[in-house]
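**User:** Everyone, produce a chain:

**Assistant:**
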Amino acid sequence: MDWRDVIGELEAGTERVAGTLSKLTGEELRAPSALPGWSRGHVAAHIARNADSLWNLLESARTGVEIPQYPSLERRNADIEAGAGRSGEELAADVRDTAARFAELAGALPEDAWNAPVKAMGGWPHPAWYTVFRRWNEVEAHHVDLAAGYGPADWPEPYVRWSSAATLADMAALPQEQRGGLAGYRITATDYGEAADLGWTAGGPEASGSGRALLGWLSGRTDGSGVHVRPEAPLPAPPPWPHRPAGF
């Protein structure tokens, strides 16, 4: 999928997040999210601060001056904590405003800047255009993490198609020791045809399901409903998601 098409998808996804937040009461925002140790307000603040952090990477590509995604992990966490206690309307406005700022810079970025190398907080490099896809994962996955009625079944099909394929490709590129309980498996999206061999050999274990079922499971957003294992066995725990992208 072309990154240019993702910008419109991001705008729609951001508006869905903001719509969810604006309906939540203060008590509901202080309640636990699906992420351990974070309230719904923490998740919302993170979605906004992530837009700011990825704006930094686009600005780095535009200027040629290296700008870190976050000044530090401590600053990232402090900013999330500082913003988590606001009202639903305030959090929704923050999510909208920071997303609009990101989209504005993306729309104005010179064509040759999109291939400029930037660096994720984890230290791995990627071209600037991949920043748009990283943001897509953040918006859709963390909307689910709000635990406020939006789930993997609500993910738009273009997102599921891209992210499930990217997840399988990225997992296949992981070193064996980072594949966790899925080492030795073949994983197949039955509707899209993509597959990942994680050290699989003939006769080895296989997991299969729709791209949506696989993405929900591999991203940690479902318990694996709709995913089938052969030979029959409990679903293994997937490694932490998202993964370093393959090929960069």
